[in-house]
Amino acid sequence: MRKIKLGDQWPEVGAIGYGAMSFSDFYGPATDEGSFAVLDACMELGITHIDTANVYGMGRSETVLGQWLAKYPVRDQLHIATKASITRNAKGVRYFDNSLAHLEAELEGSLARMGIDYVDLFYVHRRDQSVEIEEVAGTLARIVESGKAKSFGFSEISPVSLRRAHAEAPVAAVQSEYSLSTRSPEMGLVQTCKELGVAMVAFSPVGRSLLTDHPLDPSVIPSLGFLKNNPRFTGRNYQDNLVKSKEFAALAADMGVPAAGLACAWCLAQGDHVIPIPGTRSVEHLREVAAGGDLLLSDDDLARIEEVLPIGWAAGERYNEAQWVGPEKYC
Prior knowledge:
The protein is of the alpha/beta class. Helix content is 37%, strand content 14%. It has a single domain (3-308), classed as NADP-dependent oxidoreductase domain (TIM Barrel, Alpha-Beta Barrel), CATH 3.20.20. The protein is built from ten helices and twelve strands. Helix 1 packs parallel to helix 9. The relative contact order is 0.14.
């Protein structure tokens, strides 16, 4: 897979990264053996950016990665990112903690689970709106100075918040959902990242299966905690989205590529600062998304994709009311 350089704070990484939420049971049962096989395949395919978080499986994702790293001395070949700030109080109520004490403690836990001395990128997973973002950026800069992280970023913040944070200390990356089915980042975030030299890390680039050759069967949705109440995957919305999904898969077949690979190639075509991080429990599917890493789309290709999936095609919001708590809305 070709390598890309996403900014001064990034080394060269594979054009497609890996989102390690799939090492937990978020999209269905995961096994350690299956996760190890995926990591083996990442190395084979040239996928070197691995993106995880302390809350993925309540530490399970990081633990699996750590167990694999203990067997294979490839730490220096990887660009590892993790996230923190989502937590719960004694009554189990979720909230966001952006304090230095919390972030330092959570990062220490993450490093211990992964068996490493530092992460290449440390994100604030969700912003605490009671704390000015300049203060949070300063906190993260102090963590970088400690040597426990080489750079820092944010997940799901607005372009305005990014500008304010970056003015305080250099932000390496902003992670946000971005795909052919979720194009709201084009309302300023993609452009602001480009202007400031910040990497745009695109999670769910295959639309939580909608942009693949095998979208989730409707019968599976009720067993998935996140998707069973998600507007795009319930009722009439999902049926309508599956129709469009088939049209996209047909276009990909006509172009001679897996649909998931085409979806990731589209993300890469949106700027040399964009890196998609699909997640999967399947080595076969990983190979499909990796096919997009070396696929360079022409203007004609992009026009054909836009004709099949014009902006705004997806039925239903990407989050329900509860899922919207935390991400910053800016359009």
